[in-house]
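Troubleshooting: if your tokenizer reports a length mismatch, compare your output against this known-good record of 347 residues.
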Amino acid sequence: HYSFKGDPASSLLEVLDPEQNKAFTDNYLELGYDLSNVLFVCTANNLENIPAPLLDRLELIHVPSYTAIDKLHIAKDFLIKKELEANGLKEDSITFDDDSIFYIIDRYTREAGVRSLERAIASVIRKIIVLNIKEVQNADFKISVKKNDIPKYLGVETFDSTEKEKGKQIGVVTGLAYTEYGGDILPIEVTYFKGKGQLVLTGKLGDVMKESCQIALDYVKANAEKYDIDSKLFENNDIHIHVPEGAVPKDGPSAGIAITIALISAFSKKPVSGDIAMTGEVTLRGNALAIGGLREKSLAALRSGIKKILIPEANKHNVSELPEEVRSNLKILFMKNVDDACKVIFK
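Known-good structure output:
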């Protein structure tokens, strides 16, 4: 945050530059320091607000969010033991089966790390102690926590599990989104009705995503004949593109292909399966450009019951970095352009 109190980014420019920090002067102490042999470690949740000159002085190490499997093992090997000790219980006095931990992860926490998971586990343990206050004092006290027990200890589920669309639908396509909490699926709906060719966008979309909608529509208009679409439909109808969960801001270019397919589906009356999700930026020529966050997006698809994901050919080299659970359970398909996507989706 920049204010009259100072600009920390400007100070860091000098502090982190080996050519300048040999004689760094602290304006408060009015003393010079040699910082050339100091190792600075900086952390950030995202890089968007960091000035480019400052990024240029840093070596970037990307730490991806944990998968559900990662969180399971962290909970079993560390968090549960830590909370049992903090509450004065023996290591084996309260045990959680895998399903109960997955249930907490999926329905009571929505995060990239494990802070909320640790708090939820601590809450369960404290609730068990309160409900079994007399038995806890016995040396042989033991209890096993099952999935069905969790609502009793943590109350109503905090989050709904995002589920894929059922069956085949016209004008509804599943995209993939990358959020600060990890990945999520992103349903995209398209419909049209009598009007004057106006484009209506809803769902609290950012400027870049609005541009993706316009690019997708212009591409479909320019190639209407190729996709068996009557071009008069664009002149005599208004087009509405909606991305549900309208209170949640959404932005970025990676929904472009999904929006394009949704438009083609709506105007050609061809249904799209709910078992396939897609991600990729689209150009006016219909090319599919590379996207980021493939790891998180693919994990979200797997969690939501998606069977196949369609990604840009340019992201092929990222597949080897995906977790084994993704590569074993998801069929990953590649596309260079919208035509490639159509061959897979409308076959």
